[in-house]
């Protein structure tokens, strides 16, 4: 349980009373109660209010808000307000201002705008976190600390450059090791002195679209920037823990946000939390995958849905309303995948500036007689009923998909073989195939223990880090099923190629050699031709993007290319290795192939769907103390008929019995217990 | 009359004798006479020639040109030459050079290149204007002063930043008022000191595509930049007026140019003038709308067509020739909408630099035996015949369309709800519907007195400024018809939302509440379903872009949405208010709906087309002393048949009678008097 | 012969032993021998290794490599290593770092990164070239010097600005001449002082897409930059020649690379060499045209194919493999057009950095059992057989196509008439028509002697330099056929229009006057309607892009426009002038017209294809001592049947006789002697 003070699924969101007057506060409280809201995230962007100059701190307003809300039964998720520095700080201490990718010093403006290596920023952000901790460490309202906000954004200033040299020195020890790791003998970039190293940006090694001339230095700069921002987080967290060691600390993450290695971050967080903003056309399986990734950050521990919009966003191209009941559907989708909170950005819509067209529980009209508010209040009421059954329960998956931020960086930074290669999309293709079957999946890091899984899938595992290949070999030897794809096993953690033949360290496990890698424009396709029927697979399928030209070195060839000069060469292989199997898919297949392929893998391991439901209906399960809670989510866009056959469930919302043939409305949800 | 020295429609254009030798001057004069040219705009870009250093001024060359032309019957529109600073000024006084949106200091180059807050630029531009005024104040050739040229371009330098702080201080008085107006409690951007304020650009609050994090500061920077450039204009104008108080002063504007609030500018100009450069695909109704806007700048007073090309431009992607007679057609289109001059850029084509492929009266071949010259000469001859009837006559419209630059800025700066929303396009849709009916329209500012109109249409009036709502309520109470659309009445002049329910200050007038605003991709459409037949409207029409979800609060629902979850909700409403009606169109309709809708409005008010003509034929009227002059313009791209029935007109070009069935050739024009 | 030390077609490529260890070197040597490789380009990017600080030079490693290779029968193409400066130099002497188009000072990174006017760069690049020359001047392995690498990239720093002023001064002598040449009276840009001149870039006269406000200054900056980089080359070359006067010197060029005037460069090179990187969709005729251009740089002298990839590239969007036998086909295509070397980038694929996915003779797998290696070895073996017949032989063409870099710059820099106008594409259209007929073509500069040609074609010869018109008049007077097109003869070498009527200096030769130039969007077409059948031409063809509206002034009208208001005006004319003919094609025709048109020209001159072959088969010839070697290249993508009829050839690869009907496989090649 995140905090036992509030032993239910928390319901609330970001709240900015500092933008409003007292009359509005009273109205807010009334409406929060109507909506079943029990937690408010305060102080996210109030640094300027809290600290009007170097020496003055004003927290009285915050005391008043926390107390006022608490007196009305509403707890506080307490932010540290360091997501945007105050204007005076930018004016007096320009070191807090970032330099952008093109080398331009920024001026005061925006948010997430501080140089992470700025001495001024670090000093004052740590100090205000400590002052807040001292002040509120014993306040009964405070459930959790919310450090800063949506960390992100790289800086390219001179102080970052100096800090980067130190970071590199600490990592490699000698300049010779740096030269080797970054292969600087290429293009004569050999460094003789630490001072020779300049940071990689648009003025040095990097170009548009994130491609770098030297992947080594660019990879390390991403690691360094992720670490630099994490260092800022840790400074605040430690300042808080000094005074309030027992209150959990988090910061809100952003799913597949590319800039930070969240697996590394999550180790420093008591609970993972994230902000979920799908667009109207985002596939539900992509959202589910992201929830699973956020759950995977802390190895399955429940996470917080820290933000979602009650209806509209403002920053998409076309900001569609969430259709009726979709907010509810997506809220339960989060819970179904392991969230123990449902929280919104924002409780009241601001009157001006760039988020005034971002939806809120309380809209500009200011009263509760809106569709949005009614839907919010319904969910609030339901969550009060549900929490006992769900809180702290766990998803249980036998299939894991590997995702790795550093692998993604290396792929994106590399020049060739195809600009169309998108790592996250390839991961999603495999996730989606499992999702369509309603097979639970864990999204895991390359460091995760895999021994409890039946199947581990690592799409486009281009970078193989030390120890990973051995771990997977051991997993397969012991009976596991491993799947990887084209363009895997190519490089080590510094993006240096593993010589001797692709897929490098995975070669003996997979029993193949990839001699060449063809890359064609997206409209050029090849075929996956099954050598014989195999479970759900038969005949021919389409593939594209990249095409490894592989030779079996012991693996069984399951399918061959159907066209081009490599017609007849293997495209899908399986290698028996110890008690298990290692599969290789040498191109990017169509959806139909992947569904059959994944079904075969699951059948082979005796894994079956949680429920048999029509397409477009998602089913997940969370288990606590042996008791399963089943979520049935209708994403199909129309009413559907389900047949539960002889199973008898209790509908946790209605408390009624559910069995046999039933109907589930468009966008509706069933939450069932046996 | 702009200047009684030349009591006819002026005919001429920009002329740069400083680029040519004496032999060419003589040839020019001969050809100008052949073409009926009687005015030349001189000295537009001659600052470097006029003033080779800080202290030296040379105007002898200009004396010679003005005199030479005058001796040949050609008057002068005298520019002040400040549209581009001299190279020596940029070198010695870098404060004249602008800093761009990305913070880069520019070097000498281009035109319209001076920082409007540069002390050097202001000093020398004022000084040269004064010197010119002293020298030419009594010259009989000088008809009008042409200050600088096509003002535009923002600057983001430190001196602009300092001046902006002063401007903000003058507007708001206290830093607290600034914080309130800009809602800086959002994201903790509160200012404690005037020095905290930095200008909004790509290094601070603004991003690509003009979106700002803080609309308040960005709106004010646009106001400030428009004012700063206007201040430059006023310095020159006042310097001129000191010596030549009776010669009119203008500067050439650019239609819907986004950067400057021309309604504010026009107050400082004796006559509006503008440069008309439609492309080959520009709808004729868009050009007409722009003429009407330029006429509206000074409440209907005749304006100057200061520039148009005789044939080609150079800066479009594909610079098509003006087809035969199109230059003539478009010249009369300007006159038909209120222009009392027809002037070209340029009289002679330059030999080098970026406008060498811009058309001219005298082409590179240098003689008069060209299609372009022959067409120019024909119009010159005709204008000599026509002027008596047209000069100083006025268009008379009973329909007004509201256009507001600050509203446009606020829409463009806002983040959400849709990037596809283009204010000018929405205005044009309504204008075009009236244009197709040949109903005259005035384009007016929000400050204009509306009491003389029957119908006022304000598409997407997102920003409602103080007093506007009351004025419109009074207009409708007294019997007027008002129309507005989706996304109107949302914010005040600082882009702060009017709380309590959209459309804010217009809500009681319109009798509706807009609960939500949906935004969908451009290919996603809904339907406007008429509840019953209404005049020219029946059945169903298409709508898109934004979709207000409105509730009637007294308004009659005329049409409902035909699809999506708001099917059946109102999409077109009319509210009876006093003796008049207030219409609301909650989405962006197709052309067919708008033509029927507008026809109904006009029928209701007894407004009918000036003439019944086939589609593609434009008809306008100018009236002087009760005498109407009717323009019939064939934009259809082929010959058409007209039926004037029993009306009997005089063709002012042929002096013949015109009645009954007649033919009008492709691109031809009739100018008729009763 | 490039160097008599190795009297065969050289075979090898770029090799970077400094990236590898000794074990790899031994393996490399073994494999080079297997592949028939006899030349390695060394030291391309080893400056940092050669010179770790200002005063220290280490060439022992290079001695070892050159010797080791030589001892294994492999010669050296010795680079000077100055294509990328060392990191220490950038740190200590920032003047070596460039400033980019937007005025941003770059940091250390990339390659081709030195300011060409940097005193530091010039000092150290000259010095290292001299040291290398001293050391290796007598080494028997050194075949040729390879100065720097792929020169290119402009700089916009203050030292370039100062040098530009001197360059301008040297060219024009007085500031008045500069003002005249650049037409600075336009927009009042008159310079009074040399210091007034600022370099043209994104902060001054130039904008996105290379358009300039002043073509004069921008043209001269391109000339100056081309000269500045050439000066760097010459400094190194002269340092080498001082010690090694008899070893040829080159630098590798890049075909139609836009930035440098290669005709001027080639005068300073002993042999032309270039890097050929067609994409999978590049038309074979474009590659052939580029080979012919590279051959034309030195008036037909054999050139070096310095780089091509054995299979893949890394920097295209989708890096397709070269299909089986395509590397061989394209290698012989180079030889067929005059190359006396076949060389690769690269011999061994690097382990890291941005070219790790660029193909190599030795792939990451490290052994010879790859498709790529086998194909390389086959070509290596064949070249050993062939060299006697081909080396030093010459192509012999009676048709020349004019190409001029300064003309291209002027077209690209000009604003109007159409952004779709691409000079190289228009040149290629005419080249391709000749290519389809298998008529040999020389690509020549405007300075080339044309008296030996039958036909000279100068598409879009917008800029006519002094003397060119007279030379062509004399050529036609003496019986030659000249062809030019729309938008020709417009300006002089400063991009100042030749007044008095287009096509200016070419007008009397062509017997036409172009009154206007229409420009339409690419989807808008007109028709070329033949007045009567003319050889291979009859009926109607499509044309587009630009449309000159021409009048005959003596020329015979062969075809007329078929549509628009200039229907019936001439579109193709021919003027008899002395004993010859001058053709004008007033718009951009379709492929079908051009094939007929070019066929007529050739028939008229008695020029016929080298062989009659099916479409998609290329035939060229090289002649030495009266002996012809015929190349037949099957680009068609499938097997073809040829009929050589009674001709009897010797197949130089198989030594067999070839006559009558024969088959040629997809991507296969015949090399035949009579």
Automatic annotation (TrEMBL), chains A, B, C:
Enzyme Commission number, as recorded: 3.2.1.23
UniProt GO BP: galactose metabolic process
Pfam families named among the record's database cross-references: Glyco_hydro_42, Glyco_hydro_42C, Glyco_hydro_42M
Domain Glycoside hydrolase family 42 N-terminal: 14-386
CDD domains: A4_beta-galactosidase_middle_domain (cd03143)
Residue ranges of domain Beta-galactosidase C-terminal in the record: 616-672
Positions of Zn(2+) binding: 115, 155, 157, 160
Cellular component aspect of the GO annotation: beta-galactosidase complex
InterPro entries in the record: Beta_galactosidase_C, Beta_galactosidase_Trimer, Class_I_gatase-like, GH, Glyco_hydro_42, Glyco_hydro_42_N, Glyco_hydro_b
Stretches assigned to the Beta-galactosidase trimerisation domain: 397-607
Location of the active site: 150, 307
Keywords per UniProt: Glycosidase, Hydrolase, Metal-binding, Zinc
Family: Belongs to the glycosyl hydrolase 42 family.
Protein name as it appears in the record: Beta-galactosidase
């Amino acid at each position: 349980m995140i905090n036992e003070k509030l032993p239910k699924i928390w319901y609330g969101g970001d709240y900015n009373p500092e933008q409003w007057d007292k009359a509005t506060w009273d109205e807010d409280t009334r409406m929060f109660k109507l909506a079943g809201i029990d937690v408010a995230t305060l102080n996210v962007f109030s640094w300027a209010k809290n600290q009007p100059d170097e020496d003055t701190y004003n927290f009285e307003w915050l005391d008043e808000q926390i107390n006022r809300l608490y007196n009305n039964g509403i707890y506080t998720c307490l932010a540290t307000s360091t997501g945007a520095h105050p204007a005076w700080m930018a004016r007096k201490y320009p070191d807090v201002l970032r330099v952008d990718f093109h080398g331009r010093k920024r001026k005061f403006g925006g948010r997430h705008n501080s140089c992470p290596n700025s001495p001024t920023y670090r000093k004052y952000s740590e100090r205000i976190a400590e002052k807040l901790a001292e002040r509120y460490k014993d306040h009964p309202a405070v459930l959790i600390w919310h450090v800063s906000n949506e960390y992100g954004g790289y800086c390219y200033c001179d102080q970052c450059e100096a800090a980067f040299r130190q970071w590199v020195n600490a990592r490699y020890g000698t300049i010779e090791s740096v030269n080797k790791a970054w292969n600087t003998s290429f293009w004569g970039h050999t460094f003789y002195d630490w001072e020779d190293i300049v940071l990689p940006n648009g003025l040095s090694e990097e170009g548009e679209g994130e491609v770098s001339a030297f992947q080594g230095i660019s990879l390390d700069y991403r690691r360094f920037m992720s670490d630099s921002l994490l260092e800022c987080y840790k400074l605040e967290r430690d300042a808080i823990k000094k005074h309030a060691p027992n209150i959990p600390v988090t910061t809100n993450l952003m799913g597949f946000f590319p800039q930070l290695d969240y697996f590394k971050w999550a180790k420093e967080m008591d609970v993972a939390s994230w902000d979920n903003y799908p667009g109207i056309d985002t596939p539900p399986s992509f959202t589910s995958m992201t929830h699973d990734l956020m759950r995977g950050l802390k190895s399955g521990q429940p996470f917080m849905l820290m933000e979602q919009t009650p209806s509209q966003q403002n920053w998409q191209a076309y900001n569609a309303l969430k259709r009726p009941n979709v907010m509810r559907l997506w809220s339960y989708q989060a819970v179904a995948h392991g969230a123990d909170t449902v929280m919104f950005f924002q409780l009241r819509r601001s009157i001006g500036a760039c988020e005034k067209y971002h939806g809120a529980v309380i809209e500009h009209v200011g009263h509760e007689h809106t569709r949005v508010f009614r839907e919010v209040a319904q969910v609030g009421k339901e969550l009060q009923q549900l929490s006992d059954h769900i809180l702290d329960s766990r998803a249980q998956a036998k299939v894991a998909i590997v995702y790795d931020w550093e692998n993604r960086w290396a792929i994106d930074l590399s020049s060739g073989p195809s600009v169309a290669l998108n790592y996250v999309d390839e991961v999603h293709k495999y996730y989606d195939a499992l999702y369509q079957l309603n097979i639970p999946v864990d999204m895991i890091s390359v460091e995760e223990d895999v021994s409890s899984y039946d199947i581990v899938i690592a799409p486009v595992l281009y970078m193989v880090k030390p120890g990973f290949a051995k771990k997977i070999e051991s997993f397969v030897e012991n009976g596991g099923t491993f799947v990887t794809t084209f363009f895997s096993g190519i490089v080590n953690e510094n993006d240096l190629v593993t010589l001797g033949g692709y897929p490098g360290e995975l070669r003996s496990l997979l029993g193949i050699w990839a001699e060449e890698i063809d890359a064609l424009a997206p409209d050029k396709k090849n075929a996956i031709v099954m050598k014989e029927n195999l479970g759900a697979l038969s005949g021919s399928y389409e593939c594209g993007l990249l095409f490894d030209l592989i030779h079996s070195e012991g693996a069984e060839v399951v399918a061959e290319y159907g066209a081009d000069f490599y017609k007849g060469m293997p495209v899908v292989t399986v290698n028996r290795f110890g008690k298990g199997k290692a599969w290789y898919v040498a191109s990017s297949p169509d959806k139909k192939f992947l569904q059959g392929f994944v079904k075969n893998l699951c059948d082979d391991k005796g894994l079956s769907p949680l429920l048999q439901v029509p397409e477009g209906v998602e089913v997940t399960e969370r288990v606590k103390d042996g008791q399963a809670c089943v979520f049935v989510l209708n994403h199909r866009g129309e009413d559907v008929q389900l047949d539960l056959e002889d199973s008898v469930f209790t509908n946790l919302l209605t408390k009624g019995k559910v069995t046999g043939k039933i109907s589930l409305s468009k966008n509706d949800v069933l939450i069932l217990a046996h």
